[in-house]
Amino acid sequence: MTDRQPLVVMTGVTKTYAGITALDDVDFVVRAGEAVCLAGENGSGKSTLIKLLAGVEKPDRGVISLDGVPHAAMTPTAAAASGIAVIFQDFSLFPNLSVAENIAFGAELAEGARFVRGRHVRELAARTLERVGVPLDLSATVGMLPVAQKQLVAICRALASEARLIVMDEPTTALTEREVRALLAIIQRLKADGVAVIFVSHKLAEVLEVSERVVVLRNGRKVAEGPAAEFDARSLTRHMTGRDLAEVGAAPLDPSAPVLLTVERLSKAGAFADIGFTLRAGEVLGISGLLGSGRTALAKALFGLVVPETGRVTLDGREVPLGDPLRAAGAGIGYVPEDRLTEGLFLTQSILRNVGVGRIEAHGRGPFLDMAGLVEDARDWLARLRVRAPDPEAPVRSLSGGNQQRVVLARWLARAPRILILNGPSVGVDVGSKAEIHAIIADLAAHGLGVIVISDDLPELLATCHRILVMVEGRIVEDIPRMDATEEGLARRLAS
Amino acid sequence: MSSLLGRNETLVAGVILAFCMVGALADPGFLSIPTLMDLLRAGIVLGILAVGVLVVLVSGGIDVSTTSLAIVALYVTTLFVQNVTPEMGWPLAFLLAAVVGALLGAINGLLIAGLGLPTLIVTLGTLSVFRGFLLTFVGSRLISNLPGGLRDFSRAMMIRGTNADGSFYSLPWAFAFLVGVVVLTWFLLYRTMLGRQVFAIGGSMESARRIGIPVRRVQFLVFVYVGALGGLAGIIHASLARVANPQDLLLNQQLPVLAAVVLGGARLEGGTGTLTGTLLGVSLIVLVSNSLIALGIPNTFQSIVIGFLILLGTGLPAWQARRAQRRAA
């Protein structure tokens, strides 16, 4: 496909922020109808590169050419006019407006329309949806749509503004396996249509499948480039991190390890039914299922956040009261939620406080709080989990995804739980941190903790678990030992 | 269909019906044309102000300075017409009041869009500044002898009639201004790109910026428009009351105006709100404050009723949303 017209050519682009080089002499080419995967860890310079493309930032040195015309300084309008559209992770939609209006808003704005052209808007939206091949209710309010459909609306909006290059920032993070498949199919259609796509993604396998070319950035430099066929997950990881991250895999489980947790006949109408399993000390148990399979409801039920109608949960032979998070925590169960931003962390509070809050009652001195002891304890855990925090007093919000996840872990570990439930432990975390979180999980299990990992990231389950339960429509349909599990087999079971 | 039942409009309409039934039971003369005319007349000024506040709420802001702005506009205009152009007809005087209001609104707009200050803080500030400036530097004397043009306007009746018991009823032409403002605002909000941009900004300011909407310009225009509506409401109020009072009790109507808009379903977070809802909200507030008097219920009781209505009108949909969410979990 190299004979196609280059759409965007960046040569020798350099950008520094306050003396720190974010991009260093990078060359980058995208051709029409081509999908390029831009890989790199946090801070590698991928977001800077996108900002330069979108005209939000200006390069210190180097030239950006669009359709062969060099632009010394790209502006957002020049970028938009030449068909470059960036779809941010939050999609930048208007939740209060209809699907049709969201799709057509940018195009109408660019045409300088003064009045609302209702029929024109609906026709444009319908035409664009047809191009993508997915039917959506044009008059539905976007805020009510599920994430995958919001993403579709964002893609359609870019297409409606006659985008020729769509940059997608982490497009698969919030999607389930099946939705990712649908998205990739749409990308194939767009490519056939001559639209170029740049993927910025942490999830490597799926990106390789749909990309022609891979460009890897590390510390602001281009460290690798080539046809996607020449990369695999392992070599990509090596280029991104600069080291070989061997996935440790779960250490073999001691066959004499005692049973810690027993779940019997746990049911909740509309969520899950007749759930039963055991978890032994030192065991890492994976629970996988598509969105809506009941995996998250089950995890919440074990921690008392969802009240099951029937069933029994026993820990160390003692029954754990259902539907009461405080008593579940007291019994020794810890839960790290999927959405740590809204469910797990006090974002604006300091890192130390976030770790310490789980242990407030242990540091009571009469009615008062032993702040010094609490802080000491928290610092200790930050060090043990190797949280890279320049300043423990800084708000948690300032940390990267991987380090935020470690703060949540540290808070629970400080309470010395017997069982830890991790829901999507590495959602939105980069490759390097992911491997480290997996190592932490292995280490916890080696110390006798029972760990339950809930995830639809199959390689993650394979890398961490001794045993994987597959949930379909609220029931456990299979209990697969690690040695018998393969990614393809699991994916097939999930979709069944 | 649950969405229709859960909507504020439906809820408010139901409460209005209930009120009317209670009114009819307590006073057989309640359901009559004179009562309707009284309510419509009382809703004119409140309605115009509420439509303005609706536009601000949709854009994601809040405006608590509109009644203060309206009083300044009505007094400055009356003073000017009385002293400089006593022969001026009401149309020009109305235009003048709208321009004064727009200028004051532009001050809000500059502080909010230009300096990026929060709308509540700015309008709380100007609420006090507008009024203080008027009383300190313009005048505090009540003008009870309105210029001829304004007097003429207040006498122009759309509907006039005599009841069976011989009592008179009438609806002033000022009501047509409320209708005009509603139609104009509907057109601006739903039929122009500017109006859609107001909704877009209220939905997500960051998204609006990214897509290339001139957010500051739109915000500025919103406050100018609301100012103009405030000035118009002010001069109509003075004309109907046949007095230009710099210490007018219209000032106390700020919270009822906001209450009407919120009852009508406009969300304080922005992006949501309808004219139908706002008009229903105004009707309910007017009904409560007027008919409770007619039914012999003390004035102080009204604020309790209005307060409960606000808690009910905003609390019930929020509670329903939470219940729906819990069911989904």
Automatic annotation (TrEMBL), chain A:
InterPro entries hit by this protein: AAA+_ATPase, ABC_carbohydrate_import_ATPase, ABC_transporter-like_ATP-bd, ABC_transporter-like_CS, P-loop_NTPase
Q: Name one GO molecular function term.
A: ATP hydrolysis activity
* Family matches, as SUPFAM superfamilies: P-loop containing nucleoside triphosphate hydrolases (SSF52540)
Does ATP-binding appear among the keywords? yes
* Pfam families with a match to the protein in the record: ABC_tran (PF00005)
Q: Which Gene3D superfamilies does this one have?
A: P-loop containing nucleotide triphosphate hydrolases
Instruction: Please report the stretch or stretches of sequence annotated as the ABC transporter domain.
Output: 8-244, 240-496
Q: Which UniProt keywords apply?
A: ATP-binding, Cell membrane, Membrane, Nucleotide-binding, Repeat, Sugar transport, Translocase, Transport
Among SMART domains, the record links this protein to: AAA
Listed PANTHER family: CARBOHYDRATE TRANSPORT ATP-BINDING PROTEIN MG119-RELATED (PTHR43790), XYLOSE IMPORT ATP-BINDING PROTEIN XYLG (PTHR43790:SF1)
The identity of this protein, by name, is Ribose ABC transport system, ATP-binding protein RbsA
Source organism of the structure: Rubellimicrobium mesophilum DSM 19309
UniProtKB/TrEMBL annotation, chain B:
Keywords from UniProt, A to Z, are:
Cell inner membrane, Cell membrane, Membrane, Transmembrane, Transmembrane helix, Transport
- Classify the protein's membrane topology as the record does: Multi-pass membrane protein
Q: Which InterPro entries match?
A: ABC_transp_permease
Q: Which residues cross the membrane?
A: 42-62, 69-86, 92-113, 120-143, 168-189, 218-238, 250-268, 275-295, 301-319
> Please, which domain of life does this record's source organism belong to?
Bacteria
Cellular component terms per the entry's GO annotation: plasma membrane
Principal localization? membrane
Name one molecular function that GO assigns to this entry: transmembrane transporter activity
- Subcellular compartments: Cell membrane
Pfam families per UniProt: BPD_transp_2 (PF02653)
Q: What is this protein called?
A: Ribose ABC transport system, permease protein RbsC
Could you tell me which species this protein originates from?
A: Rubellimicrobium mesophilum DSM 19309
